[in-house]
């Protein structure tokens, strides 16, 4: 052990012992657990710079990595290690899947402490790259350079169009090629970056809130082939907006929905702003089986369309809906699951916080001639009360897909009171799901568990649990 100039403790040549949560790894030094950030894998050796030291654990960043792990695979992206997007790209896909399954098993065994059926191995993604249907890039005058780029004499002055560096909100990594979204995502980004630079259009600087013309770029590639582009401008002359939009329209005739928005607020969100549609339709269409889903610039849709279909099929199978069943779909978003299962059910009610998503959900029922759905907007904690259940009817089946924080306890209590014969719990966070399962154990038995991989090259895992009334 030694200390560097900034007085950080450094441990040299430490064996990386295991994977840990949140894409970290773990080792043990002097009986203390040490959580390690950086592109390491169990079996590697690395020097560790301690960033935090508490009584029972430490947090460290790995450097001088000796890549001797047998779990490693060749990385394909030149931005790996700097970009926060694919933190597990150096881990072979089978190991990624094994660890995700283990994360689910650990959370359910350690936190839920309920009787469990055999947990199925994770459902893998058929595509491990180019699987995302949406990416969001940021324009910046404040380009991030790696040490290698600085050493090779690259200039800081070139603008960037890419992703935020993890923990460095002021720096943007200029992306040459991103392996997450299919063509023509890369071509559009690079063409727009080069065109705006050639025409001396400056970029908005978010942290310093410096005036600039271009701010953000959203590209959505639907499984139907539809293609949406939304360019976010900040302080841009109308003739320059026309210049950029005409360039995109001519260069990429395959864009089916070309839009822009002017945003001079302190953040990049545009939910409260008017979107101007300059070419094509103001939405794209996603398809699943014979259903169509209309996705506008402000609409949520699961970002891995193919795996979303697999997730929904598992959810539908676990729900095992009969023709007379009344279903609640909690945290329905744009009503995708509600509409996906509606034809099996007598009636489906979808509940969701975001009013605009509820409007999308209603449209998605209409365009598919689904007439047995109803959607309500509100905070689940208040909306899903015993009164709501008395007023609208007791559900036979509940499907719930909450955000990472899981369900609020009053929501779980209302479910226990309503006592549907079956609950299907879809979760993107096995820890909070396990916490909620512990409460549901009062009346429910877990009868099936199926993890699903929606995000290869990352530590994120989705999990579907079926619960039957005791
Ligand atoms: C994981 S997403 C589920 C989306 C949807 N089931 C789907 O597959 O597209 C969680 C949803 O819960 C909504 N949400 C988050 N907190 C909420 C709350 N307190 N009350 C109601 N809805 C909430 C979010 O807006 C989001 O649409």
TrEMBL record:
<dbReference type="InterPro" id="IPR002792">
    <property type="entry name" value="TRAM_dom"/>
</dbReference>
<feature type="binding site">
    <location>
        <position position="302"/>
    </location>
    <ligand>
        <name>S-adenosyl-L-methionine</name>
    </ligand>
</feature>
<dbReference type="InterPro" id="IPR010280">
    <property type="entry name" value="U5_MeTrfase_fam"/>
</dbReference>
<dbReference type="InterPro" id="IPR012340">
    <property type="entry name" value="NA-bd_OB-fold"/>
</dbReference>
<feature type="binding site">
    <location>
        <position position="401"/>
    </location>
    <ligand>
        <name>S-adenosyl-L-methionine</name>
    </ligand>
</feature>
<protein>
    <submittedName>
        <fullName>23S rRNA (Uracil(1939)-C(5))-methyltransferase RlmD</fullName>
        <ecNumber>2.1.1.190</ecNumber>
    </submittedName>
</protein>
<keyword id="KW-0808">Transferase</keyword>
<feature type="binding site">
    <location>
        <position position="352"/>
    </location>
    <ligand>
        <name>S-adenosyl-L-methionine</name>
    </ligand>
</feature>
<keyword id="KW-0489">Methyltransferase</keyword>
<dbReference type="GO" id="GO:0032259">
    <property type="term" value="P:methylation"/>
</dbReference>
<feature type="binding site">
    <location>
        <position position="331"/>
    </location>
    <ligand>
        <name>S-adenosyl-L-methionine</name>
    </ligand>
</feature>
<dbReference type="Pfam" id="PF05958">
    <property type="entry name" value="tRNA_U5-meth_tr"/>
</dbReference>
<dbReference type="InterPro" id="IPR030391">
    <property type="entry name" value="MeTrfase_TrmA_CS"/>
</dbReference>
<dbReference type="InterPro" id="IPR030390">
    <property type="entry name" value="MeTrfase_TrmA_AS"/>
</dbReference>
<keyword id="KW-0949">S-adenosyl-L-methionine</keyword>
<dbReference type="InterPro" id="IPR029063">
    <property type="entry name" value="SAM-dependent_MTases_sf"/>
</dbReference>
<feature type="domain" description="TRAM">
    <location>
        <begin position="2"/>
        <end position="64"/>
    </location>
</feature>
<feature type="active site">
    <location>
        <position position="428"/>
    </location>
</feature>
<feature type="active site" description="Nucleophile">
    <location>
        <position position="428"/>
    </location>
</feature>
<comment type="similarity">
    <text>Belongs to the class I-like SAM-binding methyltransferase superfamily. RNA M5U methyltransferase family.</text>
</comment>
<dbReference type="GO" id="GO:0008168">
    <property type="term" value="F:methyltransferase activity"/>
</dbReference>
């Amino acid at each position: 052990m030694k200390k560097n100039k900034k007085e950080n403790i450094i441990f040299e040549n430490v064996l990386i012992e295991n994977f840990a949560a949140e894409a970290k790894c773990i080792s043990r030094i002097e009986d203390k657990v040490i959580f390690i950030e950086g592109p390491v894998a169990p079996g590697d050796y690395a020097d560790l710079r301690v960033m935090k030291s508490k009584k029972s654990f430490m947090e460290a960043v790995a450097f001088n990595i000796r890549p001797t792990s047998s779990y490693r695979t060749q990385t394909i992206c030149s931005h790996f290690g700097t970009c926060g997007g694919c933190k597990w790209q150096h881990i072979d896909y089978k190991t990624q899947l094994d660890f995700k399954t283990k994360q689910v098993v650990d959370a359910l065994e350690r936190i839920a402490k309920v009787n469990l059926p055999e947990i199925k191995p994770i459902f893998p993604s058929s595509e491990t790259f180019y699987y995302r249907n949406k990416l969001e890039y940021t324009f910046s005058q404040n380009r991030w350079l790696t040490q290698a780029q600085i050493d090779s004499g690259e200039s800081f002055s070139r603008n960037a169009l890419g992703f935020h560096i993890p923990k460095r909100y002021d720096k943007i990594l200029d992306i040459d090629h991103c392996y997450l979204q299919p063509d023509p995502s890369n071509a559009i980004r690079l063409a727009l970056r080069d065109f705006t630079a050639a025409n001396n259009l400056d970029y908005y600087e978010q942290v310093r809130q410096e005036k600039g013309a271009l701010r953000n770029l959203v590209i959505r590639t639907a499984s139907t082939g539809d293609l949406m582009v939304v360019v976010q401008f900040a302080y841009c002359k109308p003739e320059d907006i026309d210049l950029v939009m005409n360039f995109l329209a001519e260069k990429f005739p395959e864009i089916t929905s070309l839009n822009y928005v002017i945003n001079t607020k302190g953040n990049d969100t545009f939910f409260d702003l008017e979107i101007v549609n300059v070419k094509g339709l103001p939405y794209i269409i996603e398809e699943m089986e014979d259903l169509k889903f209309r996705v506008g610039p402000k609409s949520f849709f699961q970002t891995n369309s193919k795996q979303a279909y697999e997730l929904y099929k598992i959810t539908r199978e676990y729900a095992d809906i009969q023709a007379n069943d009344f279903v609640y779909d909690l945290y329905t978003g744009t009503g995708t699951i509600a509409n996906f299962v509606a034809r099996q059910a007598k009636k489906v009610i979808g509940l969701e916080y975001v009013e605009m998503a509820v409007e999308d959900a209603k449209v998605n029922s209409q365009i598919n001639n689904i007439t047995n759905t109803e959607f309500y907007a509100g905070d689940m904690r208040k909306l899903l009360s015993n009164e709501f259940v008395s007023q609208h009817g007791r559900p036979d089946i509940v499907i719930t897909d909450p955000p990472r924080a899981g369900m609020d306890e009053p929501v779980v209590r209302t479910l226990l009171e309503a006592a549907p014969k079956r609950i299907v719990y879809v979760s993107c966070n096995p820890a909070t799901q396990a916490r909620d399962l512990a409460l549901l154990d009062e009346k429910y038995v877990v009868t099936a568990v199926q993890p699903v991989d929606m995000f290869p090259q990352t530590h994120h895992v989705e999990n579907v649990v079926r619960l039957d009334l005791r």
